[in-house]
Design goal:
This protein is an alpha/beta fold. It has six helices and nine strands, in the order ααββαβαβαββαβββ. The chain starts with 6 loop residues before the first helix and ends in an 11-residue tail after the last strand. The protein binds S-adenosyl-L-homocysteine.
Length: 218
């Protein structure tokens, strides 16, 4: 990792912001968070040169850091407000969690891969971006002791929407989750209208690493 943020990195970030704006991201706050956060902090040194390309990259344990466009797309759908209590399932590199924290959210993020959890926890401590708590858990079950949440985001590709997550969503709250039977998942936004009623909206298709049950201790 290289924690030195240079003018060159800043210039590359500006270009990245222009790219994702061209692809359709409109939310100014989301765009400025992408422009502010050094993505190369979240990648191994070997990938530093590519950190500002709009692509996903390996981060170890067969996982990837999401493509910046995907991060921006999901974040835009979440309509984050300052102080929102947000649950993220799939910490991965910590990049998405850091974007949420930069927008003023109080972030609770869960990872099922133990090694990745430890690595990212250490990284987030070091770079000190906002309010983020990390958990080594199976995100399928959510985080009942901290529920309810204003917003939830799943950053792995699901085949169904976990009931536990719906249960832990505030009334008026929003869950953004890529879901579907095929490799390509439909970005789905669920809004909790009242105790029993959930409204569903569907957006574009994306590819994600799989949402898996249970934890992996390694
Ligand atoms: N938000 C991440 C994306 C990482 S890829 C980032 O910005 O880098 C998705 C992550 O979801 C992987 O690290 C994977 O291990 C994790 N994951 C998959 N199923 C999970 C589950 N049931 N609970 C918690 N994390 C899970």
């Amino acid at each position: 990792m290289n924690f030195n943020d240079t003018y060159r990195h800043k210039g590359l970030r500006k270009k990245l912001v222009a790219t994702i704006q061209e692809k359709g991201i409109k939310d100014k706050k989301v765009l400025s968070a992408i422009g502010a956060l050094p993505r190369h902090f979240f990648l191994e040194k070997a990938f530093e040169e590519w950190a500002y390309q709009d692509k996903a990259f390996p981060i170890g344990n067969e996982q990837t850091i999401s493509q910046p466009f995907t991060v921006a797309y999901q974040t835009e759908l979440l309509q984050i407000k300052k102080r929102d209590k947000v649950l993220e399932v799939g910490t991965g590199s910590g990049y998405q969690a850091a974007i949420l924290a930069l927008l003023g959210a109080r972030v609770y993020t869960i990872e099922r891969q133990e090694a990745l959890y430890h690595k990212t926890n250490g990284l987030l401590d070091k770079i000190e971006v906002g309010n983020i708590r990390t958990f080594f858990r199976d995100g399928y079950k959510g985080l009942p002791e901290y529920a309810p949440f204003d917003k939830m985001i799943v950053t792995a590709g699901a085949t169904d929407i976990p009931k536990a997550l719906l249960k832990q969503l505030k009334i008026g709250g929003i869950l953004v989750i890529p879901v579907g039977d095929d490799a390509s998942k439909k970005m789905t936004r669920i809004t909790r209208v009242d105790e029993k009623k959930f409204q569903k909206e569907e957006f574009d298709n994306f590819r994600f690493v799989p949402f898996l049950k249970g934890v992996n201790r390694k």
